[in-house]
Amino acid sequence: MDADRGVRVGQRLGVGLLRLLYRARVTGQAHVPSRGPVILVANHVGFIDGPLGFITSPRPVHFLVKRAYFVGPVGWLLRGVGQIPITQRSADREALTSAREVLRAGGVVGVFPEGTRGSGEVASAQQGAAFLALGTKAVVVPVALSGTAGRSKGALPRVRSRLSVTFGEPFDLAGVPDVAAVTGRERVAVATEALRVRLAEHVRAARI
Question: Three-class SS of residue 116?
Fold first, then answer.
């Protein structure tokens, strides 16, 4: 995919910066399928979660990123490395269409199902990730992030602090029994809860 070229460049530069600033522990990258459509779903604790997930993904990934960040130099950079702007807490058709195109071309999309930063326990989830997974037959890979919260909201973690990224085992959301048993709008709602539970369980297990 030509669109992945900028992503790869950004990942290479990001790896160097990550090693310089933090002590990052990354495990489970082999769980991410080497080909085919994949959705990475991660918990959301700190401002650095997006860049960290982007940098450590073993494949080029296009994260759904808050549209407000796509202004000025930061916006230029985000677009240059292939990230997708999305309006939070809305059915952003433009963002979902862009994400679908990536997945249908066999690429990887990153989503924070919680929709915004919080405790990172995944107590709730929005429907976008499940909608995309069901519509494109993409495999879902849960990702647990920890150590990414700063001292205040929007702040970066202290330099040289420990960060952790744990990629979990992939699963086919459409194949989950509760999801397979329903149709229509109810199916997306049931799939969203199934995805939320899987991600929350993975986050808890990664912290043990």
Answer: coil
